[in-house]
């Protein structure tokens, strides 16, 4: 169901009822998924939460029951979200993420992980990632959900993606400072060489 409404100061872009909510492959709840300009909100029978767009690192539609990998078996077409940060949907339940150990224990009982050992294992300082799946009762809603999230996520760029110091070393040259024979700053195409 497509909705263009305003709730409070946030525009609602899409709402769909009768959605099943999974973490990885475990069914957690059934309820309503609402896509707004500022977040994705879940209002289920057991759980209620919102996900801010900067915490969503990936969203996709999967219609393949194996997702291209025979080891991953999820039998329903769904909207997939990869979310960084805290498990706001958990209500204190333990994580079921299949990420495994974050480091290795070596002989002295010392934990080696992350940059210290040159591996790509996450460290305690890095955010954990979780895979969430939303299965609408009407599969025709999948593309509309994806499009609404893409539009709204573009309105909410991750502040960590941009920093003031990012372009500090780049110096812009003012226009017209080109020294050439005609002295006006323009390049004469007849006298141009690739020297």
UniProtKB/TrEMBL annotation:
One of its GO terms (biological process) is mRNA cis splicing, via spliceosome. Residues 94-123, 152-195 are annotated as: Disordered. One of its GO terms (cellular component) is spliceosomal complex. It is found in: Cytoplasm; Nucleus. Residues 102-118, 158-178 have a biased composition (Acidic residues). Coiled coil: none annotated. Its main location: cytoplasm. It holds the Pfam family Voldacs. InterPro entries: ICln/Lot5/Saf5, PH-like_dom_sf. Keywords: Cytoplasm, Nucleus. Signal peptide: none annotated. This is Methylosome subunit pICln.
């Amino acid at each position: 169901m497509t909705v263009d409404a305003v709730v409070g100061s946030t525009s609602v872009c899409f709402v769909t009822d009768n959605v099943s909510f999974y973490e990885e492959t475990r069914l957690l709840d059934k309820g309503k998924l609402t896509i707004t300009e500022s977040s994705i909100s879940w209002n289920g029978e057991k759980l209620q939460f919102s996900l801010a767009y900067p915490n969503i690192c990936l969203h996709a539609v999967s219609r393949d029951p194996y997702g291209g990998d025979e080891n991953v078996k999820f039998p329903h077409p769904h909207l997939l979200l990869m979310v960084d940060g805290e498990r706001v949907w958990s209500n204190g339940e333990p994580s079921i993420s299949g990420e495994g150990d974050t480091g290795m224990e070596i002989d002295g009982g010392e934990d080696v992980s992350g940059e210290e050992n040159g591996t790509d294992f996450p460290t305690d300082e890095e955010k954990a990632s979780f895979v969430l799946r939303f299965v609408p009762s009407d599969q025709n809603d999948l593309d509309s959900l994806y499009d609404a999230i893409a539009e709204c996520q573009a309105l909410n760029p991750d502040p960590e993606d941009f920093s003031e110091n990012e372009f500090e070393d780049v110096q812009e040259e003012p226009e017209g400072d080109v020294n050439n024979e005609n002295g006006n700053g323009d390049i004469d195409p007849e006298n141009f060489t690739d020297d």
